[in-house]
Amino acid sequence: MPNTILITGAAGFLGGLLSAALIADPNTSNVRLILVDIVEPKAPTSAQAVTIEADLTVKESVDALFKTEFGVPDTIYCLHGIMSRGSEDNFDLGLKVNVDSVRLVLQAAREFGTQPSIKFILTSSLAVYGGPLPHTVTPDTIATPEGAYGMGKLTSELFINEYTRRGFIDGRIMRLPTIVVRSGAPAAATSAFISGVIREPLKGIECLCPIGNSMDSPELDLPLWVASPQTTIKNLVIAKHVHASKLFRHTRVICLPGFTATVREELQALEKIGGKAALDLVQFKDDSISRRLVSSWPSRFDNAYPLSLGFLVDEGGMEPIVRRFQKDIEAGIA
Ligand SMILES: NC(=O)c1ccc[n+]([C@@H]2O[C@H](COP(=O)([O-])OP(=O)(O)OC[C@H]3O[C@@H](n4cnc5c(N)ncnc54)[C@H](O)[C@@H]3O)[C@@H](O)[C@H]2O)c1
């Protein structure tokens, strides 16, 4: 039996990495990919794939994804979206893409899916949290977002839980830590600087740090909840393999494992790997809007539940991540 997997947002940063990882996954044989994005996605070489350029806010475009030569997918990775700052700056677009179009994909999965239900994996975010938070977020912590992006993600999560409860789909909601280091061009995300302050200087390019005004600023002690792209992609593949009976009955939310690093620790790792010349390329200009949003996100989670399900966590803090990114630059793949 072929494994037919639909990835929305397949031209994006995680979508591209995930396509390649699914093709290489030893636990998923005979993979066929349906890749869709508003920008034409590229399929990994040698993959059995159809690539579709489509706007997923249009119902007909969504329905067409279930009528390709590969038929109805058995797994959907719903990755398309408008990132945090993009949703904050354009509220209507954020709602249309992060909520309305996700609902269209869910509804199509319900209508076209047969038994067993389609596995529907959503990439959500720690931006669903805000307000007063405990020292460590646990699965019992209530999500009260303080921004349009988190509100949109949380709304889609509620639909997925209810569609799962009704047996329309087999939902799995992955709340991702902030991914560092993100390769490619800077994203329209409030968190973009978290990768930018490593990526740009290691490439010899100046970058702006919107937290603090110098290396001595106390604002740099702002803690962040982060994970590497490599571990996150492995975890997204694992998300498809976890048996539904192991998941909580009342919610399909899983906060993927991460670790806490401060902005200062990031910059110290940059200096250690890239030298003082790299650190000197970081310019500081404190931006209160970005700082307010990032400060509202939690920075410590209890990893026990995801680890018990077999998900993975980065070891060794920021340094191995920065070192690996430098190697990727040297290899011409970052
Ligand atoms: N990268 C991170 O740090 C991070 C953290 C938490 C959650 N996430 C979530 O993971 C997912 C993927 O993140 P990413 O970093 O790859 O983002 P990305 O911005 O690189 O990719 C998102 C993709 O969605 C596509 N898209 C936007 N509107 C669309 C539409 N109307 N129709 C079709 N496609 C559309 C974009 O063209 C883009 O290629 C997103 O849902 C994001 O919210 C990412």
From TrEMBL:
**Swiss-Prot/TrEMBL keywords:** Carbohydrate metabolism, NADP, Signal
Please list which residues make up the signal peptide: 1-20
Locate the NAD-dependent epimerase/dehydratase domain: which residues? Answer: 5-204
Q: Which CDD domains match?
A: Gne_like_SDR_e (cd05238)
Q: Which PANTHER family match?
A: ADP-L-GLYCERO-D-MANNO-HEPTOSE-6-EPIMERASE (PTHR43103:SF3), NUCLEOSIDE-DIPHOSPHATE-SUGAR EPIMERASE (PTHR43103)
Write the protein's name. Answer: NAD-dependent epimerase/dehydratase domain-containing protein
UniProt source species: Mycena belliarum
Lineage summary: Eukaryota, Fungi, Dikarya, Basidiomycota, Agaricomycotina
